[in-house]
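Saturday, quiet lab. Running sequence design on the structure tokens for the scaffold JK sent over.
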């Protein structure tokens, strides 16, 4: 019997599908779903690459919608979800309960690999046994940082009047026990990936573990320059308004120089920062991506005064041709370079003001900023994560 070409092609495709190995089943875990910040951008790419799949989180704010790839997952929340305010403004006050919340999550045994993305304690999630009963499935952790409030920036989180003093007391009482639990959780991680060289060193210092660096994905196809738009004379900040971000330094520098500063974002410190602000400082509130891109395209420079583990915002700004003035520590060492901005030190408003003055005498080329940002594309992230997932799947039982 002669097989028609179309039928022959379908038969060949079906045979190839039967011969191909089944697609690995990969579960995802993330600390919480309460917004769309840098960590959620990484999670979004993982959901695109390996989903739709099951996603395990401590809490989820039902009033917020996340990226489509995240929403397409089957989202499982911990027992903490049902506590008053735990998925909202009281989330951080439940810190002593985080280990218990993670223990309440149960990953199903039908998966071949668990990938967690963590800046808190979700890396303590227990990988299930393999479906064949031989050992447990491998666990790959993409670590944004060891929890800052436990290991590195406790003093910064303790800023801010009465609230800060309460935080300081709570960390003094529970910090030691939580650090021990956090270190012990690393026994459940087979491979650590770090978002920067800075984070890789922190993982080694805090946990005694080696980590491979995979920089986060920056949407350089969206964050692009606008050659027809002249740059203004104002400076720009885009950040969560939290103590460790040190937005107070940017405000103090703008006040001292009497230069215009536009601040995008919101957070627990907004009211206190508004009280610090002089007449040249404008608060814009939360910004959508299109609004953020417009600000990057128009600003004289982005100010980045805090210590970040990587920092997607400054790379987005560079991708739009916007120079960056950044504190020289943290993730900045991976993306700051000569010709794309100015690094300052020490971490004071006076040093930041000096850097803002020096920008006028520094040759900055928008095209060079853009070229530098192209080291951190989505495609590079995808390629690296596929390779690391394949290597983790090949780990012996």
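Result came back. Writing it out in full:
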């Amino acid at each position: 019997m002669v097989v028609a070409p179309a039928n022959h092609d379908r038969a060949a495709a079906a045979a190839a599908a039967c011969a191909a190995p089944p697609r690995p089943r990969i579960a995802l875990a993330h600390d919480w779903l309460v917004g769309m910040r840098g960590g959620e951008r990484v999670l979004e790419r993982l959901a695109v690459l390996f989903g739709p799949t099951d996603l395990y989180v401590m809490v989820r704010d039902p009033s917020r919608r996340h990226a489509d790839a995240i929403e397409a997952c089957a989202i499982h929340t911990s027992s903490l979800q049902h506590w008053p305010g735990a998925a909202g403004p009281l989330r951080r006050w439940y810190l002593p309960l985080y280990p218990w919340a993670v223990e309440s999550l149960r990953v199903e045994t039908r998966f071949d690999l668990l990938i967690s993305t963590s800046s808190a304690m979700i890396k303590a999630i227990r990988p299930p046994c393999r479906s064949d009963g031989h050992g447990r499935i491998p666990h790959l952790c993409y670590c944004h940082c060891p929890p800052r409030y436990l290991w590195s920036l406790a003093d910064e989180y303790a800023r801010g009047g009465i609230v800060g003093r309460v935080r300081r007391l709570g960390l003094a009482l529970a910090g030691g026990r939580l650090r021990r639990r956090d270190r012990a959780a690393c026994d459940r991680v087979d491979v650590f990936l770090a978002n920067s060289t800075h984070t890789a060193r922190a993982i080694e210092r805090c946990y005694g573990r080696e980590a491979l660096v995979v920089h986060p994905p920056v949407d350089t196809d969206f964050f692009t320059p606008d050659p027809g738009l002249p740059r203004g004379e104002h400076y720009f900040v885009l950040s969560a308004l939290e103590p460790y971000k040190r937005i107070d330094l940017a405000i103090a520098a703008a006040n001292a120089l009497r230069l215009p500063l536009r601040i995008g974002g919101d957070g627990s410190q907004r009211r206190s920062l508004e009280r610090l602000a002089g007449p040249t400082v404008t608060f814009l509130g939360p910004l959508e991506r299109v609004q953020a891109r417009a600000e990057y395209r128009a600003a004289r420079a982005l100010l980045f005064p805090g210590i970040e583990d990587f920092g997607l915002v400054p790379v987005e700004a560079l991708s739009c041709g916007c120079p960056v003035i950044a504190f020289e520590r943290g993730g900045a060492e991976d993306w700051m370079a000569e010709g794309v901005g100015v690094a300052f030190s020490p971490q004071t408003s006076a040093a930041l003001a000096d850097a803002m003055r020096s920008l006028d005498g520094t040759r900055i080329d928008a095209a060079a900023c853009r070229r530098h940002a192209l080291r951190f594309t989505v495609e590079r992230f995808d390629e690296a994560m596929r390779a690391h997932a394949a290597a983790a799947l090949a780990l012996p039982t």
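Notes for JK: The first strand starts at residue 26 and ends at 33. Residues 24-217+379-393 form a domain with the Rossmann fold fold (CATH 3.40.50.2000). Ask whether to fix the surface positions before the next round.
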